[in-house]
Amino acid sequence: MAKVFYIDLKKCTGCRNCQVACKDEHCGNQWLPYAEPQPEIGQFWMNLTEKERGAGSHVRVSYVPVIGAQTKAIAEFAPEVVMDRDDGLVVIDPEKAKGRKDIADKFEGVYWNEELQIPQGCTGCAHLLDDPDSPIRIPRCVDSCAVEAIQFGDESEFDLEGAEQLDPQSNVYYKGLPQTFIAATVFDPAEMEIVEGAKVTAASADATFETETDMWGDFWLKEIPAAEYKVTIQKDGKVVELEVSTLEKDQGLPDIALA
After folding, report:
1. Residues 164, 109 share a domain
2. Alpha carbon distance 152, 166 (integer Å)
3. Contacts 24+ apart (CB under 8 A), 55-63
4. Are residues 155 and 187 located together in one domain of the fold?
5. What pLDDT shows up at residue 134?
6. Which residues does residue 126 pair with via DSSP β-bridges, in sequence order?
């Protein structure tokens, strides 16, 4: 039965326990025939990416744990160096892969070990899964996640409808990958006061989203698809319209005068 990672980003707090646990398991430890030691510096088989989004007072930080080497594309590119496993985990054989820098060059999340002359990446902690005497029978990153944001098991155990992958051939599925947002503070320039309860509409070619300004005059249009939007703000007969794009980045806009 195929094994997969299932990561719920709504639970992830960015604590980096997963990243540290991976280092603890693999740095200085030789788990042959599965893996040579992971170097202490320069390699992150579990890599927690952090992105600051927006600007000014309208900022959010999103965290995405990335397991880059768990993709079937590696097995298709170099089948002779990938272990044949019933569970579908992608494990690069360190002995057979000697000298294959092309694998590290091609795939993000696969690293080149210059000293050992081998490509390296996540093995799914196959040495733990295959050892019936191991007290831990799941990948260390999963075991260390206190909020259970990272889970691992048979593909059939998870509801993958609507789940997303960073790589269409990956064994890693995500729930709640961050979408874009538009946010700003609205104020009345005549009164020099914030505007509470203004209706805010963002319309793209495909969808329309609505919200209102809160008690601080702020509005947040969250989790909207990346697109070109016409944003309309209105209250008491006053209207302002803006053209806003989230195609390249989230938008924390400067204060908006509703006059």
Report:
1. yes
2. 17
3. 55/251, 55/252, 55/253, 56/252, 56/254, 57/185, 57/252, 58/183, 58/184, 58/185, 58/218, 58/220, 58/252, 58/253, 59/252, 60/181, 60/250, 61/14, 62/9, 62/178, 63/9, 63/12, 63/13, 63/14
4. no
5. 97
6. none
- In terms of domains, do 113 and 220 share one? no
Q: What is the dihedral of CA 7, 68, 249, 180, to 10 degrees?
A: -20
pLDDT of residue 1: 77
What digits encode the pLDDT tens for the residues 205-249?
999 999 999 999 999 999 999 999 999 999 999 999 999 999 999
d(CA 135, CA 114): 33
Residues 164 and 195 occupy one common structural domain: no
| Whether residue 171 is found in the same domain as residue 51 | yes
- Give dist(CA 52, CA 9) in Å, integer: 15
- Specify whether 171 is located in the same domain as 231: no
Residues 47 and 87 occupy one common structural domain: yes
Residue 10, Cβ density class (10 Å: 0-12 exposed, 13-18 middle, ≥19 buried): exposed
Q: Which residue has the tokens 């008690």?
A: 215
Q: Is 166 helix (H, G, I), strand (E, B) or coil?
A: coil
Regarding whether 249 and 168 lie in a shared domain, the answer is: no
Contact (CB, 8 A) for 125 and 9: no
- 211: nearest Cα among 224, 202, 200: 200
246/226 Cα distance (integer angstroms): 5
pLDDT lower than 50: segments of the chain: none
What is the total count of domains within the chain? Answer: 2
Closest listed residue to residue 140, CA positions, set 40, 27, 41: 27
DSSP result, 110-141:
-EEETTTTEEE---TTHHHHT-TT-S--S-HH
Domain of 13, in residue numbers = 3-175
